[in-house]
Specification:
The structure holds two protein chains of two kinds. By secondary structure, chain A is an alpha+beta fold. Chain A has five helices and eleven strands; from the N terminus they run ααβββββββββαβαβα. The chains are: A alpha+beta, B mainly beta.
Amino acid sequence: QTLQFREHVFLKFLGLDKVPSPQKFQPVPYIMKKIFQDQETAATTGVSQDLCYVKELGVRGNVLRLLPDQGFFLYSENFSQASSCLQKLLYFNLSAIKDKKQLTMAQLGLDLGPNTYYNLGPEMELALSLVQEPHVWGRFIPKPGKMFVLQSVPWPQGVLYFNLLDVAKDWNDNHQKNLGLFLEMLVKGDRDAGVNFQLEDICASLRRSLHASLLVVTLNPEQCQPSSRKRR
Amino acid sequence: AAIPAPYASCKNLCHRHQLFINFRDLGWHKWIIAPKGFMANYCHGDCPFSMTTSLNSSNYAFMQALMHVVDPAIPQAVCIPTKLSPISMLYQDNDDNVILRHYEDMVVDECGC
């Protein structure tokens, strides 16, 4: 029992209320591994470092969290565009971030998977809009409250990044506002029948390979006094 | 003149004792991605007066060790960390979030009186 008590105290110190028991390990993005290794190297070589500044990202902060997308794909013929290739509700649970921490970064990463697309010529347009008040659950018909990213990319590949700091601050201030993001990928340009056939194939593979995550950096003011005050 | 303290064998003198905690022994490898363990070094050992001039000691420790010789009711100087370094932990929580957190002053690098 003593051991359990001590374990509980140590977990509390780590900022956890109980031993996590994840079902499977999430993929760790390169940037987090690099930041971890840089810190370990600096600590073992005795190089002094500012633990409240993430130099690899250029922001202040001492805790990084990678939140996996908990949303779902939408299949509805009611959508605006006949050329719609993929619609997805993206949802990130920010409840792990306790209110006293300051959000200094929130970066959405859309990993579209390997560039297996055939070279079809038409441009793929990626539209990311903020869902504010979904009309009806069930037959989910979102009313994108604010189209805040409309990015046209020639056959997107790899990982696309979007700065969501303002949106995440909004969500963090009022969790009720967090209704997720509506992602829609459209295909622009005219297409003949042959291309249409390949297109369905491509959109299906895109749905399989899409991986969304939100990288959040927070600064805990209690652990990160502004350096001048610490020096005083 | 300093009264020669009875010769204390080296191993009893204040120094850093190394201790490595393997997270697998605690069953924490299931949620801690990195590192594999944690250097839980600690400081332990005597701070006799005769050694305070060399044991990486503070002036205060020197004076306290001197007072202890004069009046043994005054406790000896104590063995504490004099240099600490941070650690970073990469782990996964119950919401499948991957978390990277830095903890300063976690590993004892040097000890002194």
